[in-house]
Structures are given as C-alpha cells and as structure tokens.
Design a protein that fits this description.
The complex is a heterodimer. Chain A contains 7 helices and 5 strands. By secondary structure, chain A is of the alpha+beta class. In chain A, α3 packs across α5. Chain B is α+β, with helices and mostly antiparallel strands. In chain B, the strands form 4 sheets. Chain B has a 5-stranded antiparallel β-sheet with strand order 4-5-10-6-7. In chain B, a hairpin with a 2-residue loop joins β4 and β5. Chain B starts with a strand and ends with a helix. Classes of the chains: A alpha+beta, B alpha+beta. At the A-B interface, β4 and α3 of A face β1, α2 and α6 of B.
C-alpha cells in the first residue's frame, strides 16, 4: 500500500492507505476525527465538507491519496480550545441546528462562503451558496440567520479567529441577546455546542 | 468501492505511458462523476491514474478570438476567472452554476467534457461556441466529439487536454436545474457570432447534447424571441424520466432558449 503524507488540522499525518480509501474514511476511521459526517455518500448532502488547501470539498468524493501533500482542515480544527470559531458560535447562538448531523458540513461550507463573498450578502446568496448542504431538521431559516451572524462575527474578529466566549463584549450585537439567553448553560454539556464543534458523533 | 491501485505521474506524457502500461485503468480528473459512479459500481477499474499533478492541463488563456481552458481547470476557477468573465461571461455563469461550491472546487472542465453526461452543462457550451476539443490524439471539433449519452469520439487511452471556445458577440446560458442534483433538466446555450447563431441543448434529449438547428436558422435570420414564433422542440426526441416527462422537457427547452436569446440581446458586445 502506498504511504500517504498530508497535514490534518495543522498536524502532519503519515499512513499506509489503500488506493480506494476516501478522505472521509481516512479522517473518521484512521484518525478518529468523527466530526466530519457521512450523510448521503453520493456527493449531495455536504455533511462531509472539509477544507483542502483552503477550498471546501466533499470528503466522501475525494480519494485520500489525491490529497497527498495537502492541508486538510476539519470541523475539529477551527476552534481554539474551548473557544468556538465565530461561525460555530453563530450556529449555536441562532439555533442553526437541531439534530446537528449536518452542522459540521454547514459550518465548514459557510466559512468559505464568507471568505468568498465577504461579510455582506443577501439571504438569497446564502441559500444559493448552501446548495451543496442538506438539512432535514431546521427548514434552513435559522441556518441562513446563523451564516449572516457568523459573517459579521468573522469580519468583527478579523477573519476566522475563534470567538472568546468569556469576553462577551467581543461577541457581535446580532448574537448577543441569544447568547444572554443561553449563557447560564454550561457550554461543555450543551448539545448545541457539541454539534457545532463536531463533538457529537 | 471495489479496490483499486492508485497511481500518479507528473505530466501528460508519463500519465499516458503509465495508463498504457497498467492496462485496466482509468484517468481521474476531479472525480466528481467518476468516484460516485465507482461507489455505485456503475464503473470499476483496477487502477486509477490521478491527473492532479499535470500542471500543463491547468489554466485559462485568451488568444485573439479564442478562449482556451485547460482540461484540469476546476469549475470554481473558470467561474471566478476575470478573463472568462470578460471574454465569454455566459461561460463563467455556466461554470458557476455547476453542482455546488464543493463540487466546483474539485470538478474539472475536461472531466465534464470527456464524461459526456447527457445532463452536464459544458457540452452545450462546446457545441454553441464551436469549440475545438484538444486531445492527446489530436484536435476534434465539438460537433464531431459528442456522439451520444456518455459517448464521445475520444479514443482508448486518449485524454482531453483542453478546449478552445470561439468568443461570440453575444451569448447566454439558461438552465432549468434539477432541484437536488443541480444537473440540467434542460440547459440551453445560445451564442451569436455576427449574424450566425448556434444553439446547444443539454439535459433534455434522449440522444444527449445536440444543436437545435431549426432554432439556429431562425435566429440567424433575425436574432429575437419573435423569430422563434411557431418553432417548438419535437417531443419525440426528448428524454422522459421520473423527474420530467418528454412533453415537459420540450417545453423547458423552448422556454430556456427564449430566455437565453433575451438575455444575450441585453449582453451583446457589438
């Protein structure tokens, strides 16, 4: 079997893998990064979305070997310790998820939408850009709200820096009231937090 | 997926040699069609030759009256290209409407052309823009390249290396998308070169992508929606499936053609 070398969430990885191994299998089964999900396995639902060399891709439709030498970022790689990425925080604060299965894919896709379009765009643009992600719970309304809030938060934090949840003055206005409502909840035991951070399996 | 061995070479010449030497093998471009087909076991192979390192297959160049796109150029790069947006904005639109952002990060123009999916977008542009398909076996006119559903005149072991699109005076691509897959239920590319008009239709016919000659003749006489009065797509030629029956598809082709003409009239370069 060929040896695959690549970087995942900033860490070098070296593995002997069969040619047909998909990137999502490498992440979940070899590296135990189970935040990246397999929904449809047919390139439609986007639950497996990760970043490869800065671009959003569907890891269920990419060979692991095709990523050799590349830099892969998964949902586990965007937060800074306990501090969620602004987009994760926005999904949590705006109830942009219910069961959470699709959420890691939505968050990874949404970060790239904001990087592509900047902080200001219409709801129609968000819906169009999220074409490759399917959610069976929310009806998308709160997801669109989350992306809009996440975009503002990313701009306020100078791009993709994680939100510091202990410093509430740094959380943008649009998410402040929601955060206040849920601030008494312990983030570590919060299902929404787990889903948005990819900890839910 | 069935097991296979993964291979890669650094340029086209060695990729072709590798493929010949391996025998049972397939080239892998962006993999957004081939890998799903292999997962469903509609396709299988003992060896994959990944073209990702063939840098000579990537790139966009405008030369006089031609826009050339390398085969491994990703849809996202075509959609975002200033050169494409300036030369043939309808082609940038087309690339930006394929699949979704993640598919466009991986999928390539050459892969789309070589696969010749009857619902793929690029083949309609190739026909309407009188493209020359560059292959390792020589250049092929788009009119002679697409033979049918998943069928091209590409020879065994040959590779699409790029496509040269003639730059039109006006063009538009209008696509009625399948709401889930984003493939075209009917996609119509209309291009006007002076008075000559070409119309490429994808997604609709049983025989795959085609030029709608009757509409071309009428639009070459007079480039307007009125010129298409009384001209309708023959229902018997249309594909019929669970997503859209033949009558509906024929109606969509008629409508998308008229929308494309209207749009092209507002975007004329001359």
């Amino acid at each position: 079997m060929p040896t695959l070398k690549l970087t995942v969430n900033g860490r070098p990885v070296s593995r002997e893998v069969p040619g047909q191994l998909l990137l999502v299998q490498l992440l979940r089964e070899e590296l135990s990064l189970t935040g990246t999900h397999v929904g449809c396995d047919t390139t439609q639902c986007g639950a497996c979305t990760v970043h490869l060399n800065g671009r959003p891709i569907k890891s269920c439709t990419t060979l692991a070997m095709s990523c050799e030498g590349g830099e892969v970022t998964t949902i586990e790689g965007i937060a800074d310790g306990a501090n969620l990425h602004p987009m994760q925080e926005a999904f949590r604060a705006n109830h942009g998820l219910q069961c959470g299965y699709c959420t890691p894919g939505f968050v990874m896709a949404s970060i790239k939408i904001v990087e592509r379009l900047g902080p200001d765009f219409t709801d129609e643009e968000i819906r169009e850009e999220l074409e490759g992600n399917i959610c069976r719970c929310t009806g998308y309304h709160n997801i669109v709200k989350s992306v809009r809030a996440g975009a503002r938060a990313m701009a306020a934090h100078g791009g993709s820096a994680p939100v510091r949840r202990e410093g509430e003055e740094r959380v943008v206005d649009s998410t402040r009231s929601m955060l206040e409502q849920i601030s008494e909840l312990d983030p570590e035991s919060n299902e929404a937090h787990d889903a948005a951070s990819g900890k839910a399996k | 997926m069935h097991a296979f061995d993964y291979h890669r070479a650094s340029d086209v010449t060695s990729s072709l040699a590798l493929q010949r030497q391996l025998g049972d093998s397939r080239f892998l471009a962006g993999g957004q069609s081939l890998l799903p087909m292999m997962k469903l076991r509609f396709a299988q192979t003992a060896n994959i030759v990944d073209l990702r390192d063939c840098d000579e297959l990537c790139g966009i160049a405008v030369e006089y009256e031609t826009l050339r796109i390398g085969a491994m150029t990703r849809h996202a790069d075509v959609a975002a290209s200033k050169d494409v947006r300036e030369a043939i904005p309808a082609l940038a639109d087309l690339a930006g409407w394929i699949g979704d952002p993640m598919v466009r990060s991986r999928g390539t123009m050459g892969g789309s052309i070589a696969n010749a999916d009857p619902s793929a977008c690029y083949p309609s542009a190739c026909l309407a823009l009188a493209a020359t398909i560059n292959t390792t076996g020589g250049d092929i006119d788009a009119d002679d390249f697409f033979l049918g559903v998943f069928e091209t005149s590409l020879g065994e072991g040959e590779l699409v290396t790029g496509a040269e699109f003639a730059i039109p005076d006006a063009a538009s691509y209008q696509k009625f998308r399948h709401p889930a897959s984003r493939f075209a239920l009917a996609g119509v590319f209309v291009a006007r070169f002076g008075e000559i008009v070409r119309v490429g239709v994808t997604g609709a016919a049983r025989s795959g992508v085609y030029r709608w000659l009757e509409a071309e003749e009428a639009l070459s006489r007079q480039f307007s929606v009125e010129a298409l009065e009384g001209i309708h797509t023959p229902i018997t030629e249309m594909n019929s499936d669970v997503q859209a029956d033949a009558e509906y598809r024929a109606h969509l082709v008629d409508t998308m053609t008229r929308r494309a003409v209207l749009d092209a009239m507002t975007r004329s370069r001359d």
